[in-house]
Amino acid sequence: MSKKVLVISTSPRKGGNSDALAEEFVKGAKEAGNEVVKICLYDKTIGFCKGCFACQETKRCIIHDDADMIAQKMKDVDVIAFATPIYYFEMCGQMKTMLDRANPLYSADYQFRNVYMLTAAAEEGADTPEYAVHGLEGWIRCFPKARLAGSVFAGGVDAIGDIKDNPALQEAFEMGKTIQ
Fold first, then answer.
1. Which of 12, 106, 108, 175 is 20 to 30 A from 167 via CA?
2. Beta 90-91 vs 79-87: how paired, if at all?
3. Residue ranges of the NADPH-dependent FMN reductase-like domain (predicted)?
4. Nearest to residue 83, comparing CAs of 112, 120, 111, 127?
């Protein structure tokens, strides 16, 4: 059965290395017969959460920007994949801000069950994405029906295009193909 998949590329750089991972994940998920939408945050207007918690009553954010629309899309999909560059051994600020702005989902009847993480960094150590993945797992803990279903890391990639020929691209493609 076809799944609704939302891929959120959080890199501030158009065509960045983590975005390349997102593209491969999209290709794999589509090849598996899924309905896939990809959103890039680099050209979106996303303000910071105000911590007012009005969204817990209304199920919508009081800030009417792109994050409100993205959170509503997140609510209605089966699968979410986040792609982020690793900055200072953490997810990029754009991703963290988007996770914060998804607060209306906490009290909503969300559909997503599987969440994936795609990361890229200049550092090569296998433990490089550890804190970013842990941060996403913290967000997922707030959604008891969801789980971290997988992650891919591409190390040693800094400048745009460095990821070309990196085996993580194939891993992201294959991970996308597993969605059924």
1. 12
2. antiparallel
3. 4-126
4. 120
At 110 the three-state DSSP class reads coil
* Domain total in the chain: 1
Q: Which residue in this structure is represented by tokens 């890229």?
A: 120
CATH number, position 149 = 3.40.50.360
In a domain, 180, yes or no: no
* pLDDT interval class at 1 (50, 70, 90): confident
Runs of H (alpha helix) within 32-84: 55-58, 66-75
* Residue at 121 is within a domain: yes
140-156, pLDDT tens digit by residue?
999 999 999 999 999 99
Task: Decide if 8 is inside a domain.
Answer: yes
Per the CB < 8 A criterion, the answer to whether 115 and 102 are in contact is no
> pTM score, two decimals?
0.97
Residue 93 is assigned to a structural domain of this protein:
yes
